[in-house]
Amino acid sequence: MDKIAAPVGLFIKNHSSYAIQIGELGRELITGEWDDEYYGELISQWHGYQQYAAIARTWLLSDFSDDLNLFLVGPSGSKDEREWQNFSQIIERNDLVCRKIVWLPGKNDHNWSKELEEFLERTFLAEPWKASGATSGINLDALSDSMSDFEAWREVLERPEFKSEPVEHDALVSALLEADSK
Q1: Mind listing the pLDDT tens digit of every residue in the chain (182 residues)?
Q2: CA angle, corner 147, sides to 141 and 149, nearest 5?
Q3: Which among 33, 37, 42, 106 is positioned nearest to 72, based on CA atoms?
């Protein structure tokens, strides 16, 4: 862990109860098939960041420690390299210690802003409701206005015929559906 720079720590208090650590993988891009030494260095970096995340979890309040995220960034141009794509998938499938998400930037730094937005859309920071008018004010939560339904269902469930054993299930379902349609 001595050779690995400590990840940048970021805590977003007002957004949610998530803690984020950010780290850099592979300072330079190696194209084509990796040799064992380079692959070993990347594995070592990844495991080092994972150890830092484990330490960070011990310092976080219990509300935040379960939601620690490690965002790792590959070198410029790694987006188009098959070895990097495979390596990032291995990292992201591993949920040991915390969630890990890898951003592989392309060669053209003019596209990084868009690529970074795409990366963030894969995280809890995504805000799909802000997408260019994608929602039209339609209630996306079917139960958000259902308190009156719950009251009606409670009244049905408190009827004497549904409190005693055995309960006639067909009659109960019919009564709940009838209460729901009112």
Answers
A1: 556 666 665 554 434 567 888 888 887 887 878 888 989 999 999 999 999 888 888 887 777 777 888 899 999 999 999 999 999 999 999 989 888 999 999 888 788 888 888 888 888 777 776 665 555 555 555 555 555 666 777 787 788 887 777 777 778 777 877 776 66
A2: 95
A3: 42
